[in-house]
Amino acid sequence: MNKDFLPLCRPAIDESDIDAAINVLRSGWITTGKQCNELETLITQQTGATYAVTLSSATAGMHLALLALGIGPGDEVITPSLTWVSTINMISLLGAKPIFVDVSPHTLMTDAERIGPLITPRTKLIIPVHYAGAPLDLDAIYALSERYNIPVLEDAAHALGTQYKGRAIGKTGHCIFSLHAIKNITTAEGGIFTTQDENLAVRIRRLRFHGLGVDAFDREHQGRAPQAEVIEPGFKYNMPDLCASLAIGQLKRIDAITDKRHLLAHHYREKLNLIRGIEPLGLPDYPHRHCWHLLIVRIIPHIFGMNRNDFIQALKTHGIGAGIHFKACHSQKYYRELNNEHMNSIDERLPNTLINSEQICSLPLFPDMDKAHVERVIQAIINISEQQDEA
Ligand SMILES: *Cc1c(COP(=O)(O)O)cnc(C)c1O
Question: Is 174 in the pocket of ligand 1 (CB under 6 A)?
Fold first, then answer.
């Protein structure tokens, strides 16, 4: 690690993962094949999901899941604005309308009470987001889903290794996980769709590779039979084996990776509690296991004496990286202009989204850190805070 700069994140790739990737390079088979199959099996074991499909990204998974669930023009999809833009982009590209739901001011997650009042006859899907590594209150959300007969697609990009009431995220429902470089387990770029629904899994598997049908040859050999036929026009969203090979070892170490994140997160939270004007997120009050994907704090400007953007800049001068997860999507240029006339009413409906969009900051958290790195971040924050007092 560069001694001078502490980045927001560094992947948990070790020498054995690098060896695994080199073996794939030497094997002569570098794109989708055995490694992807093994990764899919490991994901089903880890999450308890019945089916797992590897993809080029979570965004690709979102695109295919929306298509497979029949989302199109005129449909409404309820999702937070405080999420990654890919969800809103995919909904919009399919001609559907994102209906933004507010989030809890403490956990940044939405819930059934907030979603319920937004349901209309046009609502076709709910996409809630497991946030920062904590789980949504799924029981209440699925009760709502059943009452109105509207499917749920869980954005589990942050939630590989997270548990809700003793069950892993992915064990029920349809989920999308991300294996992007900053996520807890990574293939550099990649995503996984999990479901218990065989038809949906088959459809997404087909759509990820040109819409080609799967045949017996395919199941027995790596790669696809040259005689496979296009069943419907599809995309090119498959994951290469070279990438999949990186995640196999990480997944086998997932408990150790998550435990280390826990240790660091708890150390952070203990120390952060002593700094005025810095507020860590609240934790859900139902039983859960956090995977500590992100360590998010809020900078309360009138108490800390500085706003979030200046705070991130100040951290940088101390050689510390930070991030924003996330800026409210509806306030991005394109969506702002699209909703120009309705901006005020959207803003009014999303008070917790707006304030958090301005105040949240993600601090460095990755398994190769140790407590001394946390101390360094804490000391930098204390220095920044004291400089404010002097100013
Ligand atoms: C990272 C992320 C995504 C997108 O993942 P990609 O693999 O980069 O496409 C979607 N939603 C959330 C909440 C994310 O953090």
Answer: no
Within 10 angstroms of residue 335's Cβ, the number of other Cβ atoms is: 21
221 pLDDT band (50/70/90 cuts)?
low
| Residue 35 CB–ligand 1 contact under 6 Å | no
Tokens standing for 84?
């990654």
Specify the residue with its C-alpha closest to ligand 1, atom 2: 157
DSSP for 114-161?
A: HHGGG--TTEEEE--B--BTBPP-HHHHHHHHHHHT--BEEE-TT-TT
DSSP states along 49-84: -SEEEEES-HHHHHHHHHHHTT--TT-EEEEESSS-
**CA 179 to ligand 1: nearest atom:** 7
Structure tokens at 124: 């076709």
Distance of CA 390 to the CA centre of its chain: 39
Mean pLDDT for all residues in the chain: 95
Active site includes 252?
A: no
Give the confidence band of 154 by pLDDT, cuts at 50, 70, 90.
very high
243 CB within 6 A, ligand 1: no
The catalytic residue among 97, 124, 171, 183 is 183
Cα of 216 vs centre of ligand 1, distance in Å, is 33
Query: Residue 12 Cα, ligand 1 centroid: separation in angstroms?
Result: 18
Indicate if ligand 1 lies below 6 Å from the C-beta of 158: yes
Domains of the chain: 15-252 (3.40.640.10), 254-390 (3.90.1150.10)
Residues 269 and 319: beta-carbon distance below 8 Å = no
Ligand 1 close to Cβ of residue 180 (< 6 A): yes
Rounded CA-CA distance 110/183 in Å is: 21
Cα(11)–Cα(178) distance, integer angstroms? 13
167-168/163-164 β-pairing: antiparallel
pLDDT digits (tens, 9 = 90+) for 61-109: 999 999 999 999 999 999 999 999 999 999 999 999 999 999 999 999 9
pTM: 0.96
Helix or strand holding residue 100 (H, E):
strand 97-101
Atom nearest to 182 CA in ligand 1: 1
**241 touches 31 (CB < 8 A):** yes
